[in-house]
């Protein structure tokens, strides 16, 4: 259903979540899975640790032999990590052992090397003098299966993979893992005024900062950007470029979505069978943002109605965002709306943006008649989270975002917010 009225941010996000689904499951090498979401439960194939192991360098002993805290024991074995004990520990004996090595049969404690002293008898037999407090069974030993038992679920489907999950998966022998795919996101800038970043703009021209900025934001989200360059304000050129973008899982367009004479993007998207979900959100910056879907329902309906579609357009889901051309508007809408879709596609929950609460560091007047996401600096102090708006002169002022590490949300209505007011902050 097309939503014509100007939505709140929450309503727009709800509309996105009602349309976007997780991408298919793929198997990827473990070292490429960082940031992705498990699409299966991971079960331990063995106990961890797989044997009773020493937690420090020292001597494996029978606790009964050192119940009083001191004893002289005969050293009958030496066990390093990666080796297995050769003989069991009998009364009056000990084995020299290294951190991580398996504990000998018969031993039930490890005495730290710092609490021992070696000496040799004339016969050549090595003895160790234990000089410790009374030793209880289990000292300095990690028992087999203490961390994980064979057959137990270690990681559940839906877990996002961080460095520690990478380590756990490696320990479980998983060199490949099943995850939800990373979305491929086409990025297309539109406008006759744009030139590449490395060029010197001529009269009336500006550099194309949005393509590289949006691509960087997408990489930070875990998506795979597919830059498509610039499409001029020409219906045929837009149609060809947008058609290429619709082959991806998502298409981000910047520019051409307002109400100007050359704002052709919504019309061209409609011609290509993209179903509009909403156009315009009550937000500053970024009010003209557009969202729609190219999906199987659209493709089927187009065929039934005999509607013209280019042969190379995919009959597969693709979500499309038309972002305003001003760079801060594009950045904010990407953070709020495109990020929500990317997270849903990757199986990351919650997919919707979640703000942090922080106190305003100084008085600030907000003149907006819409909720405003203002560039700001956020920090955690001894007294809690604090946020300070940076100087910002509007949606074209990209340099202000360089001074910011977050955006603070000011509710709509022109008024002064006093220092100490608690507001929502979205960290970049």
Could you outline the blueprint of secondary structure elements for this entry?
Blueprint: H1 9-19, E1 25-29, E2 42-43, E3 53-54, E4 58-61, E5 70-79, E6 93-97, E7 109-112, E8 116-120, E9 126-131, E10 141-142, E11 153-155, H2 163-171, E12 176-180, E13 184-190, E14 194-195, E15 206-207, H3 209-221, E16 224-231, H4 235-245, E17 250-254, H5 265-271, E18 275-279, E19 290-294, H6 296-304, E20 318-323, H7 327-346, E21 356-360, E22 364-366, E23 372-381, E24 384-389, H8 399-402, E25 406-410, E26 415-417, E27 422-427
Parallel strand pairs: 5-6, 13-16, 13-17, 14-15, 17-20, 21-24
Antiparallel strand pairs: 1-12, 2-11, 3-10, 4-6, 4-7, 5-9, 8-9, 18-19, 19-20, 21-27, 22-26, 23-24, 23-25, 25-27
Structural class: alpha+beta
Total beta strand runs: 27
Mean pLDDT: 91
Rg over CA atoms: 31 Å
**What is the CATH H-level superfamily of the largest domain?**
MoaB/Mog-like domain
CATH topology of the largest domain: Molybdenum Cofactor Biosythetic Enzyme, Chain A
The residue fraction in helices comes out at: 10-25%
> Which regions contain 5 or more consecutive residues with pLDDT less than 50?
302-310
Overall CATH class of the largest domain: Alpha Beta
Strand-residue fraction? Answer: 25-35%
- Number of structural units classed as domains: 4
Q: Main sheet, how many strands, which sense, barrel?
A: 6 strands, mixed
Tertiary shape: elongated
Spatial ordering of strands, largest sheet: 7-4-6-5-9-8
Termini separation: 32 Å
Tally of individual helices: 8
- Gross CATH architecture of the largest domain: 3-Layer(aba) Sandwich
